[in-house]
Specification:
By secondary structure, the protein is of the alpha/beta class. Helix content is 32%, strand content 17%. α3 packs parallel to α4.
């Protein structure tokens, strides 16, 4: 089942989230894990890539894990398989994030439970860029399929 807070809560998430850590960020411009974070950056959000296979993504230093990020993170956006979501959720709670967002196609009851127990708002199986556009907050990321 797709989990999504009410519209008013989603608007609050976008309004209050300034720094977004993107777990699974990709340097490949053909991937949604590249296009969506760049769109969010262009909309004024601070994007911090998390990918242990790259030192830099989107012209920003990339970190191996959420725990390596030396600054506060508001929202953790996840572009990883569902099996990885619980571990990411635990780390999101550890770093004091306020939102855990699992991208389109990613569902995890365990991550939802961890987020709820840690006091995080939780969204799953929704694209953070498409939702931004659906709420009328921006044009939305380009489609590159």
């Amino acid at each position: 089942m797709r989990t999504r807070p009410p519209i008013a809560e989603l608007r609050r998430i976008y309004d209050e989230s300034r720094t977004i850590a993107v777990v699974g960020a990709s340097p490949d411009p053909s991937k949604r894990a590249n296009v969506v974070p760049i769109y969010l950056r262009d909309q004024g959000y601070r994007i911090i890539p998390v990918n242990p296979n790259h030192d830099e993504v989107f012209g920003e230093r990339s970190y191996a894990t959420l725990l390596d990020i030396p600054e506060p993170v508001d929202l953790v956006d996840v572009f990883r398989p569902p099996a990885d979501a619980p571990d990411v959720a635990e780390k999101a709670v550890q770093i004091g994030a306020t939102v855990l967002w699992l991208q389109l196609g990613i569902l995890s009851e365990e991550a939802a439970r961890i987020a709820a127990e840690g006091g995080l708002a939780f969204v799953e199986d929704h694209c953070i860029g498409q939702m931004h556009a659906m709420l009328g907050l921006g044009p939305g990321p380009p489609h590159n399929e």
